[in-house]
UniProtKB/TrEMBL annotation:
Alphabetical list of InterPro entries matching this protein: AB_hydrolase_fold (IPR029058), KANL3/Tex30_Abhydrolase (IPR046879), NSL3/Tex30 (IPR026555)
Superkingdom per UniProt: Eukaryota
Species annotation: Ramphastos sulfuratus
Pfam families: Abhydrolase_11
This protein's name: TEX30 protein
Length: 220
């Protein structure tokens, strides 16, 4: 279902992937610095989640300013929270690359300004861009260290923007319950020599869904 979400004086394009039966929780998903909500990995994950009973709302927000992207993400969260059509008891924020930074930034923001942030159940970071290529000294970890809700990282072990030891070091300092799933030999774009895109996506999708299910079961 295509929707247009009011955002300032314009609209954000978004698409609901709906499960056959009514979902109790959902996932909001967005793209990285390039591309849009039709990035193949996002389409694949949204379809997988919907086919396994989880509502997924993915949206496009162009722009390379992290504060702007975070604001857009907040608008989409509010939209879904107030939507009369889909009464959800909780949602997970998810993003790829820069989209996961925006999601983490929003969760930190909400937790600092709102006592009741129980609507957000967790965070899924696909290819979290922990640092720029070859700039390992400047880590983008400040938001992650403030987060309290469960976090899943799905990263490639050869990601040039997220060195394995560095992410493991950040995770060890995080106060939130967290899990890292490494895609062996994958780069930032989740490309693995000798494996098809579909094969890699199946691994990612299954990981995300099983983690969502475990997290929800723990909550309830």
């Amino acid at each position: 279902v295509k929707v247009k979400i009011p955002f300032g004086n314009k609209y954000l394009d978004a698409i609901f992937s709906l499960p056959e039966e009514k979902s109790t929780y959902g996932v909001i998903l967005t793209h990285g610095a390039g591309g849009d909500m039709n990035f193949p990995h996002l389409v694949s994950l949204a379809a997988y989640l919907a086919s396994h009973g989880v509502l997924c709302l993915r949206f496009t927000c162009k722009g390379l300013n992290i504060a702007y992207r975070t604001k857009a993400f907040k608008t989409v969260v509010e939209y879904l929270k107030l939507s009369g059509d889909y009464k959800l008891s909780g949602i997970f924020l998810a993003g790829r690359s820069m989209g996961s930074r925006a999601a983490a930034s929003l969760i930190r923001q909400i937790s600092q300004e709102d006592d009741d942030d129980s609507f957000i159940q967790g965070l899924v970071c696909l290819s979290y861009p922990l640092h720029q290529p070859k700039l390992q000294s400047k880590l983008r970890d400040e938001d992650l260290l403030f987060i309290r809700c469960p976090v899943l990282f799905v990263s490639g072990s050869a990601d040039e923007m997220c060195e394995k030891q560095l992410l493991e070091g950040v995770a060890s300092k995080m106060k939130a319950p967290k899990k890292i799933h490494w895609i062996d030999k994958a780069n930032h774009g989740m490309v693995v020599k000798g494996r098809t895109t579909n094969d890699v996506m199946e691994e990612i999708n299954a990981q995300v869904f099983s983690w969502l299910r475990e997290t929800v079961e723990r909550e309830y």
